[in-house]
């Protein structure tokens, strides 16, 4: 089975931890790279700390230094990344954010749960959410 490479661009450490935890539960050959903003991500993709081109990029929109929209603007200037599947994973349910994602040709738009009724269930709920979404993302990469 081919190893799937994912670049997660997310500034919320709890979401990164939940994503990592969900990947472990899937038990598939997945290599995860993380960046906490668009600048770090571009460095991983094009800079001196370059990683191989990922199969999938999972991108938050609201981040410091360089947000998701600014990152997509820069990334789309380089045809090298045209075949990378990009999933926006954000708390924003705004039509303008969805439309902008479509303009950039993203593969999917995932709305993260904003909060949970009981704080004690946050980890389990977020893990289940991440597990479901990751399986949707990597599903066709496995074939």
Automatic annotation (TrEMBL):
Q: Which CDD domains match?
A: REC_Rcp-like
Q: What keyword terms does UniProt attach to this protein?
A: Phosphoprotein
InterPro entries hit by this protein = CheY-like_superfamily, Sig_transdc_resp-reg_receiver, TCS_response_regulator
Q: Say yes or no: keyword Metal-binding present.
A: no
Please indicate if the UniProt record lists Manganese as a keyword. Answer: no
Q: Where are the transmembrane segments?
A: none
Entries under Pfam families matching the protein: Response_reg
Q: Which residues carry this modification: 4-aspartylphosphate?
A: 60
What PROSITE patterns does the database record attribute to this sequence? RESPONSE_REGULATORY
GO BP, sorted A to Z: phosphorelay signal transduction system
Domain of life, source organism:
Bacteria
* All copies of domain Response regulatory, residue ranges: 5-127
Which protein, by its recorded name, is this? Answer: Response regulatory domain-containing protein
């Amino acid at each position: 089975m081919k190893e799937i490479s994912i670049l997660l661009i997310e500034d919320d450490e709890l979401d990164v931890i939940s994503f990592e935890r969900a990947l472990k539960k899937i038990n598939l050959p997945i290599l995860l790279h993380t960046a906490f903003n668009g600048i770090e991500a571009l460095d991983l993709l094009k800079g001196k700390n370059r990683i191989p081109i990922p199969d999938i990029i999972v991108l938050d929109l609201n981040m410091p230094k360089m947000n998701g929209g600014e990152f997509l603007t820069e990334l789309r200037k380089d045809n090298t990344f045209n075949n990378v599947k990009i999933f926006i994973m954000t708390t924003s349910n705004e039509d303008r954010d969805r439309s902008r994602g479509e303009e950039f040709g993203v593969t999917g738009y995932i709305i993260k749960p904003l909060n949970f009724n009981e704080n004690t269930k946050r980890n389990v709920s977020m893990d289940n959410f991440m597990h479901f979404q990751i399986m949707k993302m990597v599903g066709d990469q496995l074939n």
